[in-house]
Each structure stands twice: as structure tokens, then as C-alpha cells.
């Protein structure tokens, strides 16, 4: 079993003092890479688990979840992906996974921006979960230069503080309430939200608001650290680790994290006669578009045949039925003989019956979205590749109403294609999809579950 020695992991961040956790807290500040032996398998597995958390946070934010919903989401994600039966191992996993992803996400401006934003959000919600005592310990670890307001000063501004607290629905002030006096420019979000009393250039920040101070520090520290890590990555780590860590790092930022759907679920099998009906009820827009084009033109180019063919295999179309399905369409255009000669091989190939006998995997949303369809191609993701006009028409054809349509288009304009697809799923099915859409085959399976639970005839 391979191990990553301490020396190697420390390449990326060897100059910062260790402060893994405050005395009463398990929330690390990630000041330096951990002096730990890390197995190569853990290096990747821990990073993948953290990535699941960050991606779900990103999805929650782009879907406009409220703070309370985000809090519950983060709690659930930490429990599902970051826990460990041994608390000390959970802290190690937390720190290691952060540093691996720091390497993965330091490499371009866009990657750094995304990672910084998601890690800061995660830190914010985790800080809020801590006890007041642990929060004070964390503040001390940050060496924040702010002093708590003394009793005499507190008495002199108590009425004003009470007014602000009432106006934002905070509990009444008690005699032992703790406030920090900080330059107002250090808490821009509290000032913008009129959530603090400001006097002579200072904001009076209540203990339950110090999260803003700490998060600002965390963000600024991490932002600088990512730039430093990037320099080290480019100047040495990438080359030194080219046979070991570099391939893992390079693949992690684009990896799809869900099931591969190469095998249909047990009991899931669809037959030729079902496809037409299923395409209307349960295909995501990308597959529905390919299906409609195939029916219209009796032909699809290679990219389209791969995208739709593997999807159909994943939802349970057996090889013989797949051959019959494609033959019925293509032979209308190219004739049965040419179909057998030029196209049947590729279909058998997709099912692992020809060539290297690899059982090919249906494409994830990430893969479909990042494809580059050319002229005459119909594959790709309509949310990314259609014009707005064509997308509106296609969504209308799926039964999406005007209000839902505007929300979806708004997400597309902000390049949140999977969120747009999730909203489409919810509009079409009248049911929520909290996990978000990550794979066309997941869209199909979730759709079937909903339709079956409504007792509609689905197959
Ligand atoms: Fe297909 Fe995924 Fe795009 Fe939805 S988001 S249309 S499932 S590729």
C-alpha cells in the first residue's frame, strides 16, 4: 500500500504554524498542511467526499436556498460525507481533504474563485454550529485585534444597541452581553444589512455576529494561501508528482461523483414499445431532443448515437432491442444493409460485445455539458447549447409554464445548467428534487419513481 510521507504533503504549505483546532472546537483553521502519513487511496477518497459537500453547497446556493435551509443542508452533508467513527480520524480527514482540494483548485482563477467561495460558506455554517466558548477560542486563534466593549462603554450605548437588536429581531440585551468594537469597514455585510450600531467609525458587533469578522479573516487567509499553493504547484509539485499525485489532482476538479449507471437497476428493463411513451414522460431534455431528432431525420451523427445509445442502455434497453430500435430508424434513411455494415458494430461495441469488450458508461451531465457539438450535431446539453429562443420553445413543449420558464432561463444565463435542468424536472413533475440533477439517467430514474408513486402507468 502506498503512503504519502509528511514531507510530500508539506510541499504545498510548509511555512505556516499548525493550529488544527481550537481548544474547545473541532473546526480547523487549515493554517498548515497536516504532519501526517496519508495513504494514496485516502488522498483521493477524502478529497472526493469533501468535493461532494462543496458541490452540494454550490448547488444549494445557486438554487437560492434560505440560510436556515443551508444550515440544515450543511449539517446533513457533514454527517453523510465527513464523519468518522473515531473523532480524531474525522479531524484528520477534514484537514487532509481540504489540503488536497486546495491543490486541485489552486490551478486557475475560476477554480480558485469557486473553491474560495464554497470553503468560506462551509466555514461560516460550521462556525455558527460551535458553542460560544469554542467561537471565542477560534477568534483567539485568528488573533483578531478587536477588544470586547467594557462595562462602562456598554452602559453608554446600551439603548442604541437595544434598538438595533429589536429592529433585526434579535433577543433583548442582557447585562452580560458581549460586544466587539471594530472599524465599520471590517464588517461590510453587517453594515450593508443595517445589522449593527455604528458610532464614530466603529461598528458594535454582537457575539452572535462575530461570524462575519471571522469569515472575513478566513476568506482573506485562504485567498492568499491559494495563490501561494498555485505558485508551488506550477514551479515544483506538478513535475515532482507527475507519476503519482498530479494525475489524481488533474482529474478531480472535473470528476463526476455519482453512480455510473452502466448497469440498469435490478428489475429495470424497458422494451421497444415503451420507448416512445418514456421519452415523453421521463427523458431529460438532452435525450428527448436526440430522440425527437432521430424520429424526424432517421439518423443521428456519432456524438448523438453515443449519448442517446448509452443512455438507453443505462435505463435498461437490452442489446437486441437496441439493435432493433436503431435499425428501424436508420434503415429508413440508409437502408438495412448499410445499417448492418456501418452502424450495428458500434451499437454492439457500446454493449461491450465487440472490440475491447469494454462495457461503456452512460455520460454524466458534466460530460454532456462540456461536449462541443458541431454543425448538424444534436448531442450536448440544451441548457448550454441551445439559443434562448429554442430553449424556451423546447421547455414549452415539455409543459413548463411562464413563471417556471423565467427562473430556468435566469439560471441558464448564469451558467447554472444543471440547476436549470433540476428546476425543469421540478416544474414537469410537480415535485422537488433536492439532490439536483447530475446525470441524465438519474433524471430518468427519479422521474420514474415519482410517476410510479403517483400510480400512473409508466411503462
Ligand atoms: Fe441532460 Fe444533464 Fe443537461 Fe439535464 S443538465 S439536459 S440531464 S445533460
UniProtKB/TrEMBL annotation:
Keyword 4Fe-4S: yes
Signal peptide: none
Keyword list, A-Z: 4Fe-4S, DNA replication, DNA-binding, Iron, Iron-sulfur, Metal-binding, Primosome
Domain of life: Eukaryota
Alphabetical list of CDD domains matching this protein: PriL_PriS_Eukaryotic
Biological process, per Gene Ontology: DNA replication initiation; DNA replication, synthesis of primer
Location of the DNA primase large subunit C-terminal domain: 277-444
UniProt-recorded Gene Ontology molecular function terms: 4 iron, 4 sulfur cluster binding; DNA binding; metal ion binding
Cofactor(s) this protein cannot do without: [4Fe-4S] cluster
Cofactor note: Binds 1 [4Fe-4S] cluster.
Gene Ontology annotations for the cellular component aspect, listed alphabetically: alpha DNA polymerase:primase complex
InterPro entries, A to Z: DNA_primase_C, DNA_primase_lsu_euk, DNA_primase_lsu_euk/arc
Binding of [4Fe-4S] cluster, residues: 286, 365, 381, 421
Function: DNA primase is the polymerase that synthesizes small RNA primers for the Okazaki fragments made during discontinuous DNA replication.
Family: Belongs to the eukaryotic-type primase large subunit family.
Protein name (record): DNA primase large subunit
Amino acid at each position: 500500500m502506498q503512503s504519502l510521507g509528511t514531507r510530500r504533503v508539506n510541499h504545498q504549505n510548509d511555512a505556516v504554524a499548525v493550529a488544527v483546532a481550537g481548544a474547545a472546537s473541532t473546526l480547523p483553521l487549515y493554517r498548515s498542511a497536516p504532519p501526517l502519513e496519508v495513504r494514496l487511496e485516502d488522498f483521493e477518497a477524502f478529497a472526493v467526499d469533501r468535493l461532494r459537500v462543496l458541490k452540494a453547497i454550490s448547488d444549494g446556493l445557486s438554487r437560492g436556498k434560505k440560510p436556515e435551509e443551508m444550515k440544515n443542508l450543511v449539517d446533513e452533508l457533514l454527517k453523510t460525507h465527513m464523519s468518522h467513527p473515531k473523532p480524531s480520524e474525522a479531524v484528520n480527514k477534514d484537514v487532509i481533504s481540504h489540503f488536497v482540494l486546495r491543490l486541485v483548485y489552486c490551478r486557475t482563477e475560476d477554480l480558485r474563485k469557486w473553491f474560495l467561495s464554497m470553503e468560506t460558506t462551509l466555514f461560516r455554517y460550521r462556525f455558527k454550529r460551535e458553542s460560544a466558548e469554542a467561537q471565542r477560542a477560534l477568534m483567539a486563534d485568528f488573533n483578531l485585534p478587536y477588544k470586547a466593549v467594557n462595562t462602562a462603554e456598554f452602559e453608554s450605548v446600551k439603548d442604541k444597541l437595544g434598538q438595533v437588536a429589536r429592529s433585526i429581531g434579535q433577543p433583548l440585551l442582557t447585562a452580560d452581553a458581549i460586544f466587539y468594537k471594530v472599524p465599520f469597514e471590517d464588517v461590510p455585510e453587517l453594515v450593508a444589512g443595517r445589522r449593527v450600531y455604528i458610532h464614530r467609525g466603529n461598528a458594535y458587533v454582537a457575539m452572535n455576529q462575530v461570524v462575519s469578522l471571522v469569515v472575513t479573516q478566513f476568506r482573506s487567509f485562504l485567498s492568499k494561501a491559494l495563490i501561494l499553493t498555485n505558485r508551488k504547484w506550477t514551479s515544483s509539485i506538478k513535475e515532482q508528482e507527475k507519476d503519482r499525485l498530479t494525475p489524481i489532482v488533474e482529474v478531480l476538479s472535473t470528476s463526476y461523483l455519482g453512480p455510473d449507471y452502466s448497469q440498469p437497476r435490478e428489475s429495470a428493463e424497458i422494451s421497444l414499445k415503451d420507448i416512445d411513451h418514456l421519452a415523453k414522460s421521463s427523458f431529460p431534455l438532452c435525450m428527448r431532443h436526440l430522440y425527437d431528432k432521430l424520429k424526424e431525420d432517421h439518423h443521428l451523427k456519432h456524438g448523438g448515437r453515443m449519448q442517446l445509445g448509452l443512455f438507453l442502455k443505462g435505463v435498461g434497453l437490452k442489446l437486441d432491442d437496441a439493435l432493433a430500435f436503431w435499425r428501424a430508424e436508420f434503415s429508413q434513411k440508409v437502408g438495412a444493409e448499410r445499417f448492418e455494415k456501418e452502424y450495428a458494430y458500434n451499437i454492439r461495441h457500446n454493449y461491450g460485445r465487440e472490440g475491447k469488450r469494454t462495457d461503456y458508461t452512460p455520460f454524466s451531465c458534466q460530460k454532456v455539458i462540456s461536449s462541443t457539438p458541431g454543425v448538424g450535431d444534436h448531442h450536448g446539453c440544451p441548457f448550454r447549447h441551445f439559443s434562448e429562443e429554442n430553449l424556451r420553445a423546447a421547455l414549452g413543449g415539455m409543459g413548463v409554464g411562464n413563471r417556471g420558464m423565467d427562473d430556468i432561463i435566469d439560471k441558464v444565463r448564469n451558467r447554472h445548467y444543471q440547476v436549470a435542468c433540476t428546476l425543469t424536472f421540478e416544474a414537469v413533475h410537480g415535485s422537488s428534487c433536492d439532490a439536483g440533477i447530475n446525470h441524465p439517467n438519474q433524471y430518468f430514474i427519479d422521474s420514474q419513481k415519482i410517476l410510479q408513486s403517483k400510480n400512473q402507468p409508466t411503462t
